[in-house]
Amino acid sequence: MRELSETDHAILKASENMVDGIAAMYGEHTEVLLHSLDISNPSITKIANGHITGRTVGAPITNLALMKLNEGLDVSAPYMTKSPDGKALRSITIVIRNAQQDAIGLLCINSNLDAPFQSVMATLLPGLPPQGDASFSPETFARSNEEMMQSSIETVHTQVMANDSLSASKKNREIVIRLNELGIFDLKDSAQIAAKGLGISIHTIYRYLRELKS
């Protein structure tokens, strides 16, 4: 460890949203925290779900965290630890480096393995009805830009066609408007793919886009 520069502190500050993001993803049974490796005060600078270990901002770095840092791995293998009150934790430590590749911080994730299964699932699937009839966002994990575009076209097409407040003559234009808002037409060959998917000419697509820009 060494004294961190202003730039180092700025990097750690910018990394704080990762703490909130990971905690939001995995819920209340996963503790996420950011350690500063500033030699003058190696401590927690950001923590979410600190109730798992009882720690807060300012708590000192642990001996195990320092051991993981000395292993020389930027991402540790998952390891088992115990919280002060005896909860079994599955943990991982990630080293944060600056542009000079100096270690300036640690991102640590601790999942409570003793949490009740139903509580964990309720956290991971918020709002899940007892029957399991959850409503999922229509995200497609496409393997290519073309697949992503086709999926987006199909999703928007379904939404617009179900909108009875739009006349049939305006629906294709509305689809193009929504695809444009998604940034689809910034991608290569998007107009051709959209025209084929909607069953209209590419000239019609371009006309709608020109009208949007005018």
UniProtKB/TrEMBL annotation:
Transcriptional regulator DauR-like HTH domain boundaries: 153-210
Protein origin, superkingdom: Bacteria
Cited PANTHER family: TRANSCRIPTIONAL REGULATOR DAUR (PTHR35568)
Organism, as annotated: Shewanella eurypsychrophilus
The protein's name: PAS domain-containing protein
A Pfam family matched in the record: HTH_22
Ranges of residues in domain YheO-like: 12-118
